[in-house]
Amino acid sequence: MTAHTTQNDVLARQLDALGEARRRTLLLVEGISDQDLRRVHSPLMSPLVWDLGHIAAFEDLWLVHRFAGLRLLRDDLAIVYDAFETPRAHRGDLPFLEPEAALEYLADVRDHATSLMRERGIGDGALHEMVARHEHQHCETMLQTIQLARLVGYPAAAHHAGASAAKASGDGTSGLELLEVPAGPCTVGAGPTGFAYDNERPRQRVEVDGFSIAKAPVTNGAYQEFIDTGGYRREELWSSEGWEWREREKVERPGGWTEDMSAEWRLGGYQPLDPSSPVVHVSWYEADAFARANDARLPSEFEWEKAASWDPVAGEARAYPWGEDAPEPGVHGNLDQLHAGPVATGSYPAGDSAYGVGDTIGQVWEWTTSIFNGYPGFSADPYPEYSEVFFGGGYRVLRGGSWATRARVATPSFRNWDFPQRRQIFAGIRIAK
Description:
The protein is an alpha+beta fold. It has helices spanning 7-29, 34-38, 48-66, 99-120, 125-149, 220-228, 240-249, 284-293, 301-309; strands at 178-181, 184-188, 204-208, 211-214, 263-266, 269-272, 310-311, 316-317, 365-371, 396-400, 416-418, 427-428. The protein is globular.
């Protein structure tokens, strides 16, 4: 803490971060009926009202129990809202709180946590930051549920109408144009200071062979060409597991596309398919097949991070692709939206990396070839269930951050992960060679 930064300043920033996350959560569910909040819209996702209770229970655990050493406000709900103990497919059968009670639980925990912070004059920086980011991550998860549920007239969209003015621009990049990244060293992962998740540490220096990587994510137009040339019917383009999945699930196009491929479902309704926007809601299997069809592959996560954050002139990693300044929505990417979806590739040239790689943050999550595991020297912090229990489970790493990702969460070192067959996430494709 510097001489010019008082304890009150730090406390005010912590409270602002928590408050901003809560306003976003409440806006997200504003106007959604109790019936739709309770309903299991997909076995892949929790009921929306469960997410609300889980956000409250997580805050109760970390900011009341762990931070202050006090008993949980609702210890009777600990198991109901334990994400590890209650898989998504079974959460609809749990005795979770009804919508009004869940909102009251959110408010009660926040009031208690805020009082405790004020009594002590400050919070725990890492714990309070984790709780704020956790809430933001659940907002994106809830947006996935809302997308799958096809809630017509999704209400939060009205609050953000016209929020993506950059949609009209773009630079015509299809996602097939490649840039060279020469062989050499780089650092990957988060540094020892500041907030980061345990799976991002420790930072390591690695040697990466030379490779090419796409300037932008693959667009709807380029992906439609893959479909039109028989991509979903050419078994030789698919891994054996991918082909079995495609045959079993009868997949013929990205999630959300209409059968005639003229439109896609965006939150709140169908919109004409924009050929210049990144394709979204594709599985790792589909991404892998598309890359093979274009004599390419998916990047490893180290290749992705080098292309996104390494500055070869300075010989060090940047905090963000464009430099050290935090993301500014509408300048560095299409971040922080509650309804918008991806926009035309190349709409945010100010967000390009030192290698000219664009659209890495704020469009779509990007699949990599990497299996989710810990870095050498990994140490679980603050709890093993965040990362460690998922290592070696066949999860593929995704990098970047989607239009639904909060700017506070999206960094080049952040590692997302999911099963290769998953399509509910806001995931797209970037190819490499």
